[in-house]
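Deviations from the work plan: none for this task. Representative record:
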Amino acid sequence: MNELIQSVVYGDDFGKAIFLMVTGVGFVFLVQCVFYIVIKLFSRLS
Amino acid sequence: MEQLFTGFLSTSVPELIMILVGLVLIWLAVKKEYEPMLLLPIGFGAILVNLPLSIAFEHEGVPGFLKVLFDAGINTELFPILIFIAVGAMCDFRPMFKKPVMMFFGAAAQLGIFLTVIAAIALGKAFPSLGFDLPTAATIGIIGAADGPTSIYVATKFAQKLLGPISVAAYSYMSLVPLIQPPVIRALTSKKERTIKMKVADADIPKALCISFPIVVTIVAGFVAPMSVPLIGSLMFGNLIRECGVLEKLSVAAQNELSNLVTLLLGITIGASMRAEAFLQWQTLVILALGLVAFVFDTAGGVLFAKFLNLFRSEDNKINPMVGAAGISAFPMSARVVQKMATAEDGNTFVIMEAVSANVSGQLGSVMAGGIVLAVVPVLMGWV
């Protein structure tokens, strides 16, 4: 993982922008998944 | 004698053009009612700061009231944070709790942010004079969050000199959602898809969930992306005040007095960043164009994600793909646009609840996207 980040950091701006897109969209989906699970859990428990 | 005419002698054509821009913004606010609460103060601020000698901002090293407000409210990021508390107090997440699958549209519709970053980088490569490096491109992309305070917050961190055009683009396009979204939605969906009727979700929402949600969101965001805490934390603080049930007065104050006062100060202070030498550049036009691209990509991202989900859903449980477009943060405008389109296609198609759910989750998603941009860009630039 560190090697990947290093290669992106020393790469060109396109590579950085694509990395930002993958991590950005992935992160937002991941966090929404966590919230989805929290909401579902609450609905089940109540 | 000359001193009597200092005002006339000190003015320049670019400043006169900016005064005209300020007048146009005021006209849009008053006549067209495009985000009047912001465009009017921004327009007036633009006039103030471009008047001869610019006394209202800074003259001969002495700060005027606009500079004082700028340093106190924008440089410190205080105004966007206060606005987030007010927005949080206005947010009702119940529709989202009733149909939590709609949350994912709040993520899908952030795609436009990141595609616009790539587009800005491409333009920066093609025209190096634009000076679009990654932080600047990321700031432009954030216009696609359809969320003014997030755009201002990120611009303050990464490209303060572009604060004026970024803010104007963000707020203008938010008010133009009814014009931007329908053609994109129509281009990506068939009439049959636009008339899909969705099952009504009518579940009771436990109060404990409403109270716990803002706390859980803040803690999760704090661990996953600490840089997003000021944004998410203030949004969720406002929401907790609303939902806790014991701070009615504070909730009302946040929704009204705080929101109105900070919006007023924020608007006029942003207008102060629209000085002729900073605003009248090719960059500004390109930023305005890219902002539009971001909104189009956002809408497309949400709609296409809904169509993708439909591939795996049974015939009687399909999602009306127009709902995906409401995953942007422009609340409640986007949800209204989607319902209006649904009614126009078929008077019996009601998607307002689902659209509001997607719209509210878009507010969460846009702040999350802003947080990840704030966290990742410094790493990619080798700043940390």
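Chain B has one domain: 2-380.
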